[in-house]
Specification:
Elements: H1 5-70, H2 72-83, H3 89-98, H4 100-105, H5 107-116, H6 119-137, H7 143-157, H8 160-169, H9 174-202, H10 213-235, H11 248-259, H12 277-285, H13 287-315, H14 321-349, H15 353-372, H16 379-384, H17 386-406, H18 411-425, H19 428-432, H20 445-483, H21 485-491, H22 494-500
Amino acid sequence: MATTTNDVKLSSEYQKTERVAEKISTSSGEVEAQQLELDEKESQRVLRKVDLRLVPLLSLLYLVAFIDRSNIGNAKIAGMTKDLNMGDGLKYNTAVTLFFVPYTLLEVPSNIVLKMMRPSHWMAILMFCWGLVMTLMGLTSSYSGLLAGRFFLGVTESGFFPAATFLLTIWYRRFELQRRMAVFYVAASLAGAFSGLLAYGIEKLDGRSGLAGWQWIFLIEGLVPVALALIIWKVLPDSPETAKFLTQPERDLLVRRLADDSGSGQGKTTNSDKIGKAQVLAGLSDWKIWAATVIFWGNTVGVYGFTATVPSVINGLGYSSANAQLLTIPIYVFAAILTLVFAWASDLTRKRSPYIIAGYSIAVCGFIAQLAIPKPAYPGITYAFLFPVAGGLYCPFTCLVSWIGNSLAPSSKRAVGMALLISVGNMGGIMGSNIYLAREAPKYTTGFAASLAMCGLAIFMTFVLRWAYAKENRVRDQLILEHGEAVIRARYSEEELLLMGDKSPFFRYTL
């Protein structure tokens, strides 16, 4: 049949319409892509503002906090044990350990208080109190006074770290978090370096105003947080919703980005929920948090024992007290660099567990070497293998805290769960403070062997936790595949899905 003129015209018009539709579609896609690019650029600009305000501030505070809790190691070799008639190393270990009793017991209650009041005010109160305690420790002239100081230092410092880590989680999305937390946590690594450097300088005041060098260490390092607390009260931002240093559109952008961060590209999350009994119980009863505390022990058993003992380890290799203080600095700088490298890699690859395993594996190599080297015959080699010990212990920590922070929602459950992780995890500090025995110097066989065992256990538990998270993700993927997103949304309201948090079918765990 011959093609009519009308058919040709219709065909021509159809092709034109199709080309126009294609152009419109392409144009629409390009506009959408450009808009996404603009949104991402704006997000990065706003995040830089947050970074400059929040991260350096928290890092400074943690630096001060860690110096104050660990400077007892510097005071020890500056003459404290002799002046207070502490005799053998058991009394020193008791003083170190006592800090962790209230420190571990009060972290969960502290984060509950944090959710009920402004974080800036609560953290400023804590800082002022621990600075006052540390200052008074510089005036003690008895062992019982030292014990009282360490106990109340644990009381007043207990809430700071869980509060600071939780505060970071309400500002950043899950794969933006660890880089910032690493910069914050590196302050702990550098605290060892600064503490040694400060102690070296402050010790020169020995005899001034009738005070020993170790007393000046406590006194000066206690006055700093007292002064900082008065500043923190005003300048520490509480949340994206109330940040005065951001404009309203910038605040709205941050809140919107965080709400979309469920890990699946579907669903929503919230940081505005109110804390109640249900959220507290949910945070305390999640078995995966308890499993993560075992991984945490790999860090705390080694770190707290190592931090309090490393000046003595170096001192026992034949170096003078002053040089032992200075030689701790490169070790902590190395640990800080490794922590930052691991954090960036973890965020960029969107993985947590492989970096936890890798970090502890490095520490295992260091501990094996410390047990194998005949001390003090090879002081240079012994000193060299302190580097993988410190680096391997420090770098998995931010991976773990970020991993659990990524895996808990809504924010009330996260506040309780992260505090529980840090609280029970820090109980490893009690063990770590008692396994480096003075009578075993300079070999410290018990300390190195126990730390090695805890690192091995942490690696095993990391595999277990990864398996559990991966299994739950698969179950939820299958649920949506079988029933469809629309059916699941019809079953629950948006508010119910938000309050379900990490139990929502649309929430995915980080691996």
